[in-house]
Amino acid sequence: MNTEQITPENLEAANASDNLVVYHTPQDFLDAITSKYPCPALSSHERAYWLYQCREAARWIAGFINEEYRKEISSLIEQNTASKLYEIISIERPESRVNISLMRQKYPELFEELVSIKASDAAKILGKKTLYNLVKEKIGDKEIRNFEYVTVGDVARTMLAEDAAELIETRMKTTDWVVQEKDTS
Prior knowledge:
Layout: H1 11-16, H2 26-36, H3 44-79, H4 100-106, H5 108-114, H6 119-126, H7 128-139, H8 141-144, H9 152-158, H10 161-167
């Protein structure tokens, strides 16, 4: 396989070469895969098994490609190099935030009416137990029961294993499906 670096000077020759395949669309990739690993159409089970294998491979490939792409882009941005053929364009989306200090200064009464903190920040600052007690004080002993929660990690960390085992319930929850060949031997 030709691993020569592609430059503007040799790009045209490289594209004409049998050693370089340029894919342009997801369909091109799918066509390349299915030409080498065609989907068997013998049965729905066999098709499901093939699709499962493709999905798992695609997940692994996507993770690998995302990591390599992130590294390559970071390196190119860090090096601040230019290319005659390519440019890196950042994709941005608007992110609106209230200017807290300006609002506090210009509209103090409205600021006091609307200001709050995120629940996750409150738990970090006050601690889970203090936050629990404040909510319990606000809504009462009976109503708080609808929201009570103890983490498995907290129980495992604070109790003997045999005592914790009595309290921790494990239920099976379907999160996905696997299709595999049966052992017919």
